[in-house]
Every structure is written in C-alpha cells, then in structure tokens.
Design a protein that fits this description.
By secondary structure, the protein is an alpha/beta fold. It has helices at about 5-10, 15-20, 30-40, 45-60, 75-85, 105-110, 120-135, 150-155, 160-175, 225-245, 245-260, and strands spanning about 90-95, 145-150, 180-185, 200-205, 210-215, 220-225.
C-alpha cells in the first residue's frame, strides 16, 4: 500500500504521512485508529498498545528536559531524551571512555580535536551537556550502566597525562558504584566480535518497550529500533564481555596505568 492511500484516509498530504512514518511529528489517536482500520488491524490489544506508545511519545515531546538549553547540539537531543527515561544501558567503546564516565577536561579535549565542534561556544555546550548527562548515575533511581572498553581507550593520552590520570581516577570511582559495571578488554584478548564497531543498547522499564541500539559514525548517529537488531547487539555485547577482564582485574589494570602516569 502506498503512502497516498494513508494520506487519503487521513485527509492529509503524503508529506505528512512520510513525516509520521519517520517519527518527525507526533501521532494523534484518531489517526492511529483510522490507519489501523485501513491496514486491517482489528486486535484491540495491539491498537491500545499503539495508543499508549503515541501518548508516551507526545509526553516526551512536551517534556522540558535540560537538553533544550543546548540548541547547538540538536543532533544529540534524541540520545539525551532516551537516556533520560532509560533504566539500563550497555555500551561498548573501542577508542573513547564512555560519555557517562568522562571528566570535563577529557570531554573538552575530545571536542577540541573534533572538527565537528566548530567554535568555543559549541565546545563548551558539548562539555556542559556531557556533564549534565551524568546526573543519571545519581539519585534514588540511577541508571544501570554496563560499560566494556578496549584497553586502548584507557591508554590513549587524550588531553595529556594529567587529564588522563584524572579520567582514570574517575573511572575507578565509578567502578565502585553498585549500579555501574566496568570491564576492560586487554590487548591480549585477541580477535573478538567488537572489533568492527562500537554501540550502545538502551533499555526501558515500560512493559513491551523495545531496546534501542545507537551507534556512531564519523558524521552522524545511527539508530536501530527493531527487536531483531536489539537482540543481535545484546548477544554481541555479551560475547564481548566474555572476552574482557573481570571487574576486579579491570580495576587493577586501570590502577596500574594510572600509576604509570
């Protein structure tokens, strides 16, 4: 069925239907019911679930999150919003310390050396937003974070020796939190399934909510929002973690690198 058929049912333009399908505009309940009728979906439970999702989406769009004060970072707003309502995250990083565990100096060094951060204003906005994100690791219901990083990420002298020493100290402090799991894959681990790319799997508490996978490229963030991709990345994350050092051995490795600095 073509978009024109859906547009005709809604007395709307094809352009509006395209925006709805891409998630660029909120979904109204009457439109959902009309489209379900058009697509011959009559299961009341399915329709109710779609209505619930649409309401959650509308509520999220209305929310005045802290990220709205950083219009310079509009490409990252979706990530901030999802992270804010998530209950658990699993992240695999080859070259960077995960953003939720970075110091301001480390984040600033990354931004300065990143051509995408074109001005001092954008750089400081990037650093401030990265620090604001870390509030999710505090409070009564903190985010559960599982972070696995490659040894190269904890050895790379981002910002110089002192900046990196402070960064590793912060990692060690984070590793002591009961809701943070930190593991390192050493150089000696050999080939492993995480060598091709990095990714983060974001999970939510809502019944039936699908995990979302986020991966960075040189120019953009890529989002994968279907059950098969989420399951595949979760399985890969588990396989990566199996090749990593234990949490205690990971901490010892970070401590030894910190002493070298």
């Amino acid at each position: 069925m073509r978009q024109a058929a859906a547009a005709n049912t809604l007395s709307a333009s094809v352009a509006k239907v395209a925006k709805m399908e891409r998630g660029l505009v909120p979904m109204r309940d009457p439109d959902i019911r009309a489209l379900c009728h058009l697509y011959e979906e009559h299961d009341a439970q399915v329709i109710d679930r779609l209505l619930e999702l649409a309401k959650a989406d509308r509520d999220r769009r209305k929310a005045k999150g802290w990220w709205n004060q950083y219009p310079q970072l509009k490409s990252q707003v979706e990530h901030f919003a999802l992270e804010d309502i998530a209950t658990e995250m699993r992240t695999w990083q080859l070259a960077y310390i995960p953003g939720l565990l970075q110091t301001a100096a480390y984040a600033r060094a990354l931004a300065v050396d990143n051509a995408a951060q074109s001005s001092a204003e954008v750089t400081e906005a990037f650093v401030e937003a990265r620090m604001a994100r870390q509030a999710r690791l505090a409070g009564e219901r903190p985010l559960r974070l599982w972070a696995t990083v490659y040894e190269g990420a904890v050895r790379q002298l981002v910002g110089g020796a002192e900046v990196m020493r402070q960064q590793l100290t912060k990692l060690l402090d984070a590793a002591e939190l009961p809701h943070v799991g930190l593991r390192v894959i050493p150089y000696t681990a050999g080939a492993h399934p995480g060598m091709a790319s990095t990714f983060t799997v974001v999970s939510f508490a809502e019944p039936g909510a699908l995990d979302v996978v986020q991966s960075d490229t040189i120019s953009t963030m890529v989002w994968l929002e279907n059950e098969a991709d989420a399951a595949r990345h979760l399985a890969i994350f588990d396989r990566i973690a199996q090749r990593a050092l234990t949490p205690n051995d990971s901490t010892r490795l970070i401590e030894s690198i910190c002493k070298e600095l």
